[in-house]
Design brief:
52% of the residues lie in helices and 12% in strands. It is α/β, with parallel strands linked by helices.
C-alpha cells in the first residue's frame, strides 16, 4: 500500500514539475523569438563578409570607410576620411554615405572591436536602404585598425 502511495505522489510531482517547466518555457521561447534585441545566437539575418585591414590597404579602387561607433568614440578618433553612421543617427548618416559614394567604390564599415555588432547592422542598412552591393565589415574593427597603424601596416 505504501509503495502505491509513493508511486502516485512521485507521478503527481513529476507531472506538476513538467507543467511548471512548460509554463516557463513558452514565454521564454516567445521572448527570444520576438524581442527586438534578441541574442546574437538567434540572429537569422545574413552576416556581411569581413575583410582584413591589410587587404583594404591594397585595393586600387576607391574605398569609403564608414564608422558605426558612437558620436563620442568618433570624436575621440576615427579612420581618416571615415563617415559616421551610428545607431540612432537617423537618415543623416545614410545621406552622407549616399553623397560620398561613387560607382565602383567599396564600402568598409567598422565599429569598436570584433565583439561589436554595430558594423554588421550598419552594413546591412547600407545594403538595404541604398542598395549598395560591395559593402564589407572591417575584421576586428577600430581596435584592429589601431593595432595595424601602430605596426605601420
Amino acid at each position: 500500500m505504501m509503495r502505491n502511495v509513493s508511486s502516485i505522489l512521485w507521478r503527481r510531482g513529476a507531472l506538476q514539475a513538467g507543467l511548471i517547466l512548460l509554463a516557463a518555457l513558452a514565454p521564454a521561447v516567445l521572448a527570444a523569438w520576438c524581442h527586438p534585441k534578441r541574442p546574437a545566437w538567434s540572429d537569422d539575418r545574413a552576416r556581411v563578409d569581413e575583410v582584413e585591414w591589410t587587404a583594404v590597404r591594397q585595393w586600387r579602387s576607391p574605398v569609403l570607410m564608414v564608422d558605426a561607433r558612437s558620436a563620442a568614440a568618433f570624436e575621440k578618433g576615427h579612420i581618416p576620411g571615415a563617415l559616421r553612421l551610428g545607431a540612432g543617427q537617423g537618415d543623416e548618416g545614410i545621406l552622407a554615405v549616399a553623397r560620398a559614394w561613387q560607382p565602383g567604390a567599396k564600402v568598409v564599415v567598422y565599429c569598436d572591436s570584433p565583439r561589436c555588432d554595430a558594423a554588421q547592422s550598419a552594413a546591412r542598412r547600407l545594403r538595404q536602404e541604398l542598395g549598395l552591393g560591395d559593402v564589407l565589415v572591417l575584421k576586428g574593427g577600430w581596435s584592429a585598425w589601431i593595432e595595424a597603424s601602430r605596426k605601420g601596416r
